């Protein structure tokens, strides 16, 4: 009899101290700290420190991390030259994946000890928004902007993308979104990173694997698809009929359902509120209102809750982000969690190598090619 658990649902594949999810209660903690508290009181920099070190930083430790991030935001000129070679129509997730793979070649350090890998985690986290923002400029024929020395991760990201200093609220919203996406236990991309790290492949290889897994629409790629759906619907009045038809056609509605949560995704709670407030501040609540109608309809007719990707779509769109940057923004946050998991995997490594239940043909004799037909 088969013992296979399709999709590894509820299979516990690692011991980890980093992130805990209670899917029934809708609770999410990073090293025991409630994500609601982090969203209210913390910053992305502080959250990344927590994920890498297992505790919140002192003021001095936080300042040191900010200085390290600021020192690592710029990209080598040869690397930027490489981005100019890519076709402008390339998907930003493909560019990001290619970029992280290429960055390995620019790493001057050869050591794979824990300290060097922590340095790589910081450098990768610092570099990712610069890569995404540089690509946004390059694909539009503009020179990439240099990061600002004394600004936060979120402010720098927005500045490098647009060339303008963001207002405080917009920078705060991105900062909270980065906190909310920073880690989520053994999701598909983190698992992919740990599988690669488990072979003792380097951190760039593990993160490249993670970006590949994140890009799919059943995982991080869902946020872009949510926004494309909202744009297709176009106006609040059309939302209910659109979803009704889509469900009748047995379509999967992006941004709903979750493998672990059986109740409200705690990240969606914050993103919903920010979607509303951003819309009100921008004088255009259309995307939020449409989202609310869809959410209510799906809850009532399918019993499914919105996940992290649903309201992040309207949040990023209202902030003025190009739709195809939604998933790269997710990656710019999750890099902190991926690297924390890679560090944890290296620290207590055992090759990850499960088995497959064989369901193919019985042993069969080899037939020479001239006798096949
Ligand atoms: N729309 C319509 N029906 C759905 C959806 C959805 N979004 N999600 C689940 N269902 C139905 C599914 O059809 C199935 O029904 P039935 O038992 O009648 O066949 C039932 O719910 C269980 O679904 P499942 O596919 O077995 O659940 P899963 O745990 O394998 O999949 C999921 C989880 C997230 C892949 C799935 O809910 C989904 O495809 N959601 C849409 C994509 C999405 O939003 N992904 C982001 C996930 S959360 C954050 C992240 O990872 O980025």
Automatic annotation (TrEMBL):
Q: Which PROSITE patterns match?
A: CITRATE_SYNTHASE (PS00480)
Report which reactions are catalysed by this protein.
oxaloacetate + acetyl-CoA + H2O = citrate + CoA + H(+)
Swiss-Prot/TrEMBL keywords: Transferase, Tricarboxylic acid cycle
GO MF terms, alphabetically ordered: citrate synthase activity
Gene Ontology BP, a term: carbohydrate metabolic process
**Domain of life from the UniProt record:** Bacteria
Active-site residues?
258, 309
Pathway membership, UniProt:
Carbohydrate metabolism; tricarboxylic acid cycle; isocitrate from oxaloacetate: step 1/2
Protein's UniProt keywords contain Transferase: yes
Q: Name one GO cellular component term.
A: cytosol
Sequence similarity: Belongs to the citrate synthase family.
- What name does the UniProt record give this protein? Citrate synthase
Organism this protein belongs to = Ktedonosporobacter rubrisoli
